[in-house]
């Protein structure tokens, strides 16, 4: 049996943050571990909108996500 590591959808934003690859796929934030490409968590951020950008904060463990007319601050460790 083959295991696929490919997600067939629109990846609208990418960001590397510590040991994670953060991928905005549609309105969902997908968090992958860089070393083994394992999906750690998938969270719906925006309903009906795509995530257009991911900005990590250099001081705290927060990230800023934005898309269309929305913006949200998210604690990545919670």
Our estimate of the beta-strand percent is over 45%
Determine Rg (CA atoms, Å). 13 Å
Helix- and strand-based class? mainly beta
Number of helices: 0
Mind sketching the topology for me?
Blueprint: E1 11-17, E2 20-25, E3 28-33, E4 39-44, E5 53-56, E6 62-67, E7 70-75
Antiparallel strand pairs: 1-2, 2-3, 3-4, 5-6, 6-7
Describe what this molecule looks like in 3D:
The protein has 78 residues and is an all-beta fold. The chain has one domain: Thrombin, subunit H, CATH 2.40.10. 0% of the residues lie in helices and 53% in strands. The chain has a four-stranded antiparallel β-sheet with strand order 1-2-3-4, with no helix packed on it. A three-stranded antiparallel β-sheet has the order 5-6-7, with no helix packed on it. The N and C termini lie far apart (35 Å).
Keywords:
Thrombin, subunit H, mainly beta, 78 residues, globular
Write a short abstract of this structure.
Helices cover 0% and strands 53% of the residues.
